[in-house]
Design goal:
- This protein has 2 helices and 11 strands; from the N terminus they run H-H-E-E-E-E-E-E-E-E-E-E-E.
- By secondary structure, the chain is an alpha+beta fold.
- The protein folds into 2 domains: 28 residues; 108 residues, 3-layer Sandwich (Rieske Iron-sulfur Protein).
- It is extended and about 80 Å long.
- The mean pLDDT is 87.
- The structure holds FE2/S2 (inorganic) cluster.
- The site of FE2/S2 (inorganic) cluster (FES) has 11 residues, from loops.
């Protein structure tokens, strides 16, 4: 084997081993909490109290590693069924509210607007409102949260 060929193979193997080492350490160092995040469902309201049309604001109480938390959410009746949204504006995180007259979610901070499906309808928000999964069972509306 020529010296040049040997050096070429040595360098290729070295980079390969280095890459495997970096991959192994990144898997090992990946935060345990992130690895174990999952969607868990928490009861939001009784299904009898769910909106039949339009939008209803409610508070979802859920628990995660930090303890008990509350989040403002909206339940909206869309053509595809009951849908839940986080009230957190995608711009800078203020809480939006539903304006029944304008039929828009309005953000008080910078004038962000979202339609009933959570799509951006005006202002600076870069993305739609976050949709949350919904399950109706046991007479309750359960809303999924990633915890
Ligand atoms: S935080 Fe909602 S528009 Fe800026």
């Amino acid at each position: 084997m020529l010296r040049r060929e040997f050096l070429k193979r040595f360098i290729n193997w070295s980079f390969g081993i280095l890459g495997l080492g970096m991959l192994a350490s990144s898997i090992h160092l990946y935060p345990k909490e992130v690895k174990e995040m999952q969607t868990r469902y928490f009861p939001a309201i009784n299904s009898d109290d769910a909106p039949r049309k339009g939008v209803k604001k409610t508070t979802l109480t859920y628990t995660d590693n930090s303890g008990e938390n509350e989040a403002r959410i909206f339940l909206a009746v869309l053509p595809e069924g009951l849908t839940a949204f986080s009230a957190v504006c995608s711009h800078l995180g203020c809480l939006v509210d539903w304006d029944r007259g304008k039929e828009l979610f309005l953000c008080p901070c910078h004038g962000g607007k979202y339609d009933i499906a959570g799509n951006v309808a005006g202002g600076p928000p870069p993305e739609s409102l976050t949709r949350l999964p919904v399950e109706i069972r046991e007479g309750k509306v359960f809303v999924g949260v990633t915890v």
